[in-house]
Amino acid sequence: MQQALLKVGVNHLRPGLSWLLAVLLALSYTEGPLPEAARWWLAAASVSALAGFAFRHVWRHRLATPQPPAVLRRAEWWGIAYGSSVSLAWGCSSLLMQHGQDSNLLIAMVYFGVCAGAATLSVMGLAHMAISSVLAFIAFSWGMPEAYPSHWAYFSVMLLLYHLVVFSSARQRLAMVADNLQLMQRQEQLLAEQQRETERANQANRDKSAFLAAASHDLRQPVHAIMLLSHALHTHPMDDEARALVHQVMGAGKALSDQFNSLMELSRLEGGHHPVQAQPVALQGWLQQRQQAWADTALAREVGLCLRVSQRLQFARVHTDPGLLQRVLDNLLDNAIKFSPRGGRVLITARQVHGRVTLGVHDQGCGIPAEQHQQVFLPHVQLANPTRDRAQGIGLGLSIVQQAAAVLQARVTLHSSAGRGSHFRVSLPADALLAPTADMAASQQVGAPAPRSAEPARSLHGKRLLLVEDDPMVTQALLPWAQALGMQVRHARHPDEVHSLAEVDLVLCDIRLPGARDGITCLTQWLDDWPDAAGLLVSAESDPEVLDRAEQEGLLLLPKPVDPDLLLHTLTGLCR
Question: Which GO terms describe its molecular function (predicted)?
């Protein structure tokens, strides 16, 4: 606080103003030559002003940085010395007054003004103000008997009262300045503390992200291996009891994979690490594809799945991220089908409401009470699943819907009541709707999905597969799985081992590999060397920059853990 007050006091010094007033006063003193006393007084005021300039120049720079207490005490004494010189100089201005002279009143008024101004500017401490006031009062009172021989005592009392009032006002101002400085220092401390807390929170968030990235990569590998091994085991001959056990293992592995992927996706969305890749999307065709994708699931649960697109949007396009929008709609459809009764119906709608494209999912389930509408969007909240039945999910679907919609700048609303089903609406931003093109009518016609081969493994039989994987557990799971499909598998743990291998038909490669090059660089080079081969990245990598680089290279990527059926059909598609 002491240094702050000294710093403010030094910055407020105006020695030039005091000297200028002294010159003007001397010039107005008489019309003739200056008396010797006036010349000496003006010289003293000039020396005092030069001392003030020097004091301000030296200590303004020194007080800009923290100083030890000894240096601050030295600065305070220098301030007292300078204040005393100014007070003595202006106090001696009373020596210019003479009995019966008209300029006496002017000299007194200027003196009072200088005292008031000094009290306003001086904030270097009570000692500085007290000493300066006492010296100025004594020096000015010294010349009063000469100027007012009959009333000098009366004027001296009035002068004393004036100095007391000025000193009291200066002390109050000093207290206010000290309080303001304390508030500023407290504010700076709070800001610094806030910055430290923010940095700690950011560091904790970075540590959490790094941990999640490492943990997700390490945890995906065994889950991926479990799913592949169980799928490979399922292809071997076994009795009904053993096959039922394998089915349970496969179901548990898929449930674990879905839960893990949901947790990782929710973490990425909440952390703002999911990039938006917006593009024009033909709305009706895209909705028909999602309807077809969920048709088998709805049929298995004996639930009707219908699509209704308003006439105004039949040929419309929307500018959005189809991947994120698919996550929103798929999670809503999953819940709608899951909680609809057998024989019920789920309706997908697309309408234009107040200029915004609004997608809706209606179901005929048990409904949600109004007081619980906000609660259902919280993670791990399942109102109709008190026993935590895994068959009904883990309660992350609607949390992902809300976070993904926020990334898309869309708005999710819920209309539901107990026993009357639920209606979720997703309103896209107002600028998402694009004008239809001339060929939209033709492009909107989406036929039935291409029938999957009843035995997709036949197209893989005899194919030469290069597996580049350094994780032993995943390797031990992929080798028997691929061999059970009739493929000729060659395994390389290190990318440098690939150069000695002959040309292959398929390359299945991880991203994190030993050595300086990763799987993206290696696979790009191998596909250039083998023009007839097809490549696929299968990785537990979650870094958005790495995934974007794979996409920019035009490489197909499946995140671990991969559903073996999805991996099988993907490889089958690559062989066509």
Answer: histidine phosphotransfer kinase activity; phosphorelay sensor kinase activity
Sheet holding 317-320, edge to edge: 279-282, 317-320, 433-434
Same-domain status, 33 and 145: yes
Residues 6+ apart with CB under 8 A from 175: none
Do β-strands 356-362 and 317-320 pair in parallel, antiparallel, or remain unpaired?
Answer: unpaired
- Do 267 and 298 fall within a single domain? no
| φ and ψ at residue 503, rounded to 5 degrees | -60, 145
Residue ranges making up the domain that contains 124: 2-150
The C-alpha atoms of residue 129 and residue 166 are separated, in whole angstroms, by: 10
123-150: b or e for each residue (b if 16 or more CB lie within 10 Å)?
bbbeebbebbbebbbebbbebbbebbee
Task: Give me 406's structure tokens.
Answer: 């926020």
- Quick one: which H or E segment has residue 465? strand 464-468
Give the DSSP letter of residue 503: P
Task: Tell me the C-alpha to C-alpha distance, in Å, between residue 473 and each of 236, 256, 392, 536.
Answer: 20, 17, 30, 19
Environment class of 524 (CB within 10 Å of its CB; exposed 0-12, middle 13-18, buried 19+): middle
Same domain, residue pair 337 and 398: yes
Phi-psi region of 125 (alpha: psi -120 to 50; beta: other; left: phi over 0): left
Per-residue confidence in pLDDT tens, the chain, 576 aa: 666 666 666 666 677 666 776 777 666 655 556 667 677 777 877 888 888 788 777 777 777 777 788 877 777 777 777 777 777 777 777 777 766 666 677 777 777 777 766 665 565 666 777 777 888 888 878 877 877 777 778 888 888 888 888 778 777 777 777 777 778 878 888 899 999 998 998 888 777 767 766 666 677 778 778 878 887 777 778 888 888 888 778 777 776 776 667 666 666 666 666 677 788 999 999 999 999 989 988 999 999 999 999 988 888 899 998 888 988 999 899 989 988 899 999 999 999 988 899 999 999 888 888 888 888 777 756 655 554 445 555 567 788 888 888 888 999 999 988 888 899 999 999 888 887 665 554 444 444 344 444 456 677 888 999 999 988 888 888 888 888 888 999 999 998 888 766 788 999 999 988 988 899 999 998 988 888 889 999 887 767 778 788 888 888 888 888 888 888 888 888 886
| Listed residues 123, 150, 177: the one ending a domain | 150
Tokens for 219? 């945890």
